[in-house]
Design brief:
With 289 residues, this protein is of the alpha/beta class. It contains 9 helices and 13 strands. The protein has helices at residues 15-24, 58-62, 86-107, 131-150, 176-185, 205-218, 234-240, 263-269, 277-286, and strands spanning 6-10, 29-34, 49-52, 69-72, 110-116, 154-159, 162-163, 190-193, 199-200, 203-204, 221-226, 232-233, 245-248. It binds nicotinamide-adenine-dinucleotide.
């Protein structure tokens, strides 16, 4: 039997990375690099080689690998908290990503970059609304330039708010849906950051991972938006749980409107989000804690 080709997933112990790996495993040998800042060993999947470390050390840690594709998901991934965590964001999303791009350049393989839709929010102003958004947007430009300067194959995806299995549901880095879920199961009021009218295109992690795999195998270039066309305000999502709601003070970095454009992935691969937020929340309400 022919040996499987190698794929590297940075951030492989995180929410989207772990789901992507499940889809990759039947076809590829998967090597995951994660520093467990947010990722968890409980997300590990048998058959994957997990390397613990920071992306800035990728050459030292994965120097022998000659991957077919690098999926670069291993970055700091929180909008509001990025104002407080500047050093961490810079280390991961500027320094770490620099070394991932250098690793890519030296191998001439394909790189898939997990960009953020915050770049397009509020009529394009979103890219400047938080350190996270700015660094993610800048990285999409850097990846594109690397592709052009060094004639390298790449593809860039833009994710909209992920929810689903493996979402972080406790602590300061919990996602919106993760926090709502924990509060609902604990019988506590659901806390919504004011004004609550901020709109999000919540997208199930299975839909994101399926799209990411398609882009990894067949995509080329920029503009692979992957998001659900359903748009809800954060308050509307909280109301779906049917619990009491308590408003929290406004925080910086909170974009109000997101514009979803999935036309390229739809046109090229027939990708569409299949899951709905309503179904997911109904499922959570039926589950025991
Ligand atoms: N979840 C979303 O809604 C969303 C939206 C847009 C873009 N993205 C991007 O998609 C990617 C994956 O997102 P996710 O939701 O799975 O986030 P996540 O935080 O669950 O996963 C990121 C993983 O990368 C790891 N990591 C962070 N910095 C690292 C470093 N320097 N070296 C090695 N590992 C590192 C973390 O421990 C974590 O396991 C991220 O790059 C994120 O910015 C996510």
């Amino acid at each position: 039997m022919a040996e499987k080709e190698t794929v590297i997933v940075t951030g492989g112990a995180g929410m989207i990375g772990s789901r992507l790996i499940e889809l990759l495993l039947p076809t590829y040998r998967v090597v995951a690099l994660d520093n467990y800042f947010i990722g968890k060993k409980e997300n590990h999947i048998p058959g994957v080689e997990y390397i613990e470390g920071h992306t800035k050390d990728i050459e030292a840690l994965l120097g022998k690998e000659m991957p077919k594709i690098i999926f670069h998901l291993g970055e700091y991934s929180r909008v509001e908290q990025s104002f407080k965590d500047l050093e961490l964001v810079w280390q991961s999303n500027v320094l770490g990503t620099h070394y991932v791009l250098e690793y890519w350049r030296k191998r001439g393989c394909k790189l898939v970059y997990a960009g953020s839709s915050t770049k397009f929010a509020d009529g394009g102003m979103g890219r400047d609304q938080s350190p996270y958004a700015w660094m993610k947007a800048s990285n999409t430009e850097l990846v594109k330039n690397y592709g052009a300067w060094f004639d390298l194959p790449f593809a860039i995806t833009y994710f909209y708010n992920a929810y689903g299995p493996h979402e972080l549901s406790e602590g300061p880095y919990a996602s919106v849906m993760g926090r709502f879920k924990t509060q609902y199961w604990a019988g506590e009021p659901i806390t919504v950051v004011a004004p609550g009218t901020q709109k999000r295109n919540f997208t199930h992690v299975d839909d994101l991972a399926r799209g990411l795999l398609m882009v990894g195998e067949k995509g080329q270039g920029d503009e692979y938006g992957l998001g659900s066309h359903e748009s809800y305000s954060v308050l509307e999502v909280a109301q779906m749980f049917g619990s009491e709601i308590v408003m929290l003070p406004e925080r910086p970095g909170n974009r109000m409107e997101s514009v979803v454009d999935t036309s390229r992935a739809e046109r090229e691969f027939g990708w569409k989000a299949e899951h709905t937020v309503g179904e997911y929340i109904e499922g959570l309400k039926k589950q025991q804690k």
